[in-house]
Amino acid sequence: MKDITARALNIAEQRGATYADIRVVTRLTQRIAVKNGKVEALSQDESLGFGVRVIANGAWGFASSSKLEGKEVERIVAQAIAIAKASALTKTKDVNLGQKIQATGVYETPIKTDPFIIPLDEKINLLMKADAEIRRVKDVKVARGELAFQSEDKIFASTETNGEEIKQKIIESGCGIVAMATDLQSGEVQVRSYPNAGGRHQQTRGYEFILDQKLVENAGRVGEEAVALLTAEQCPSYDAMTVILDGSQLALQVHESCGHPIELDRVLGSEAAYAGTSFLTPDKLGNYRYGSECVNITADATLPYGLGTFGYDDEGVPAQKTDIVRNGLFVGYLTSRETAQQLKLAQSNGTMRADGWNRTPIIRMTNISLMPGTWDLHDLIADTSDGIWMETNRSWSIDDRRLNFQFGTEMAWEIKGGKKMRMFKNATYTGITPQFWGSCDAVCNDKSWVMYGTPNCGKGQPPQIAHTGHGAAPARFRNVRVGVVK
Questions:
Q1: Are 318 and 349 in contact (CB under 8 A)?
Q2: pLDDT at 241 over 80
Q3: d(CA 22, CA 352)
Q4: How many whole angstroms separate alpha carbon 67 and alpha carbon 401?
Q5: How many CB atoms lie within 10 A of CB 112?
Q6: Could you please report the per-residue DSSP string of 213-258?
């Protein structure tokens, strides 16, 4: 590909671009889904193409194509420059990328087993076994299972790297099962998912990740819990209750109430049309109390297994760790090269990613994680005299500034005298982001900490889907409003 990338960059400079970069992306995906003993979906797709970004007359231009040919490269570069020059007619200021980024290198997801070499019948058989175990449970009406895999090869080069390339290979594996139980007389439906909400957990690992989830071994329990929820008591309503959220629910809480509002393009207004803005305005950086002192949140693209783990972002910036909330204080954003300069920060922290070759990079979450605390999970429950344990997300709603929210979970348990007692169904909790995180008084330690994957985060116009990671362990929150959805 070096001839292609060099040709694009040379033509861009000859036509007046002050900066140009090119990404060549090959993506292979596979998805297998079963439902009630039958294969419901089976697909494998591959795409290949390139995208070119340029700055000309102080403005951005972008164009892409699936034809990796010399004449097509020249056409796409010319189109990108024409778009940049047209955009420059309405610019308010020139694009400023700050200091040059000249990093080059190779990165590959460390895996034990390539998921694409595992025979298809072996994968289907695994899902069928889990499906059968779920349907052994009386009153389970629907059993579903899914496997998903992705392999992405990316080549990046820019006019700042003198044509030298960054090469990356990112591999992901995901899986999950869902049991749906119904009461035909009342019409009530209850759902249990494993190992994450919606029956989909994903990491940057090989097929060993699928085996580690032990879908077959957990399938019976998942079905039994779905049925048990049909006769469980409705979760009571409280104006102020102690709540312990399990790690998977907390991962989504971090995603929605911290991950999105720290995207600097949202803060500066360029994402307002699609996904809203942010309450974490620039005046709050470094002096705003986001949460209690036990709340520490990082953006870290170097953590093992995260869906936001890579070697370099799509601007060629090396992966790195950034503190977002330190001892409860808001201290960092997710930035691009351009937005970092707008906020007078030293440099980008490497969070620009594109959904394939035909989309321009935008600021996306990497691995936004609540860092482990000091509590053992057993001790945390034992230390809670009166509370509610909530696990596995079922529903969510949050305003477009990421302040007011309501979440519902698949399952909840009453905690009395430091022990789990009655099972509850249809549990919900509401809050306002800084007050909620300010009420956190305990976070479990690394023995309970898991890197969860969110493979369906939407943003941008035209829309882009990003895969993001969120490490979390169970945590306790005081004086939370708990309600009931009927």
A1: no
A2: yes
A3: 14
A4: 40
A5: 10
A6: H-HHHHHHHHHHHHHHHHHSEEPPPEEEEEEEE-HHHHHHHHIIII
Query: Which residue is listed with tokens 């029956």?
Result: 199
- Return the closest-CA partner of residue 373 out of 473, 289, 452: 473
Counted residue by residue, the chain has a size of 486
Q: Each residue of 292-328: b (16+ CB within 10 Å) or e? A: bebbbbbbbbbbebbbbbbbbbbbbbbbbebbbbbeb
Residue 384 corresponds to which tokens in the numbers above? 């809670």
CA distance 432 to 439: 11
Instruction: Specify whether the CB–CB gap between 264 and 335 falls below 8 A.
Output: yes
| Three-class secondary structure of residue 319 per DSSP | coil
List strand residue ranges (DSSP E) for 345-384, in order.
352-353, 362-363, 368-370
E-assigned strand segments in 351-434:
352-353, 362-363, 368-370, 386-398, 404-416, 419-425, 427-432
Do residues 407 and 395 make contact, with C-beta atoms less than 8 angstroms apart? yes
Tokens 């960054």: give the residue.
166
pLDDT category, 270, cuts 50, 70, 90? confident
Q: Which two tokens stand for residue 445?
A: 């330690």
Tokens of 227: 């049925």
The reply to whether the predicted model has a pTM over 0.85 is: yes
Per-residue pLDDT of 282-305, as tens digits, reads 999 999 999 999 999 999 999 999
Element at 146 (helix H, strand E): strand 140-158
d(CA 97, CA 338): 5
| Nearest of 342, 344, 348, 341 to residue 366 by alpha carbon | 348
